[in-house]
Amino acid sequence: MLKAVTSLVLAALLAGAAPARAADRITFAIPAEIVQLLPIYIAQDQGFWREADFDVSMVTIPGVGGLNAVIAGSADFSFSTGSAITRAVAHGQKIVAIVELGNQSGQILVVRKDVAEAAGFDANAPLATRAKILQGKTIAVGGIGSIADAFLKLIAHEGGLDADQIVVAPMGASEFLPAFA
């Protein structure tokens, strides 16, 4: 099943690309090592790229830089946000977007285990109850006004919290795990 899913992802990603030759080097620009890219990591770790005779490398380029790298020709693919793609097209860039549609947010709000335990966090409680754990906490987001920031504000609102009851710390996604420490 896992191989089938990652093979479908590979096929979808390569469908809009120029025909690749055997052992072509393909560069994927990723914004950070994030959970949403798990199928790509699995494809790499399981050797699916190699089986398809592709020499795939991933480079981390935060923010809109990945899409800019594709536009400039220094990367073949990027994992970019809808807003970055829309802005590029609005500014006359000729790009092909291969999208994944879903009916749920790709945002994930993570709380350290010790914080959750100290607060008596119940994962089965209603969202309004679970959201109260945010009060007085510092939460990292990719940027003020970003989708993650809006998601955090929505969750806080569901918990009846005001914006001043949460400290929002903008930082790059690659800095999130070190910030936990």
C-alpha Rg (nearest Å): 19 Å
Helical proportion, percent range: 25-40%
**Count of extended strands:** 5
What summary fits the major beta sheet? 3 strands, parallel
Uncertain runs: 1-12
* Count of runs of 4 or more consecutive helical residues: 9
In terms of quaternary structure, the protein is single chain
What's the overall geometry? Answer: globular
- The fraction of residues in strands falls at 5-15%
Mean pLDDT: 82
Give the helices and strands as they follow along the chain: HEHHEHEHHHEHEH
Strand order of the largest sheet: 2-1-3
Helix/strand-derived category reads: alpha/beta
- Alpha-carbon distance between the two ends: 35 Å
Q: Could you describe the 3D structure shown?
A:
The protein is of the alpha/beta class. It is built from 9 helices and 5 strands; from the N terminus they run H-E-H-H-E-H-E-H-H-H-E-H-E-H. It has helices at residues 2-15, 38-45, 48-51, 65-72, 82-90, 113-118, 127-130, 147-158, 176-180; strands at 24-30, 54-60, 77-78, 138-141, 167-170. The strands form 2 sheets. It has a 3-stranded parallel sheet with strand order 2-1-3. Helix 1 (2-15) crosses helix 2. The two termini are 35 Å apart. The relative contact order is 0.12.
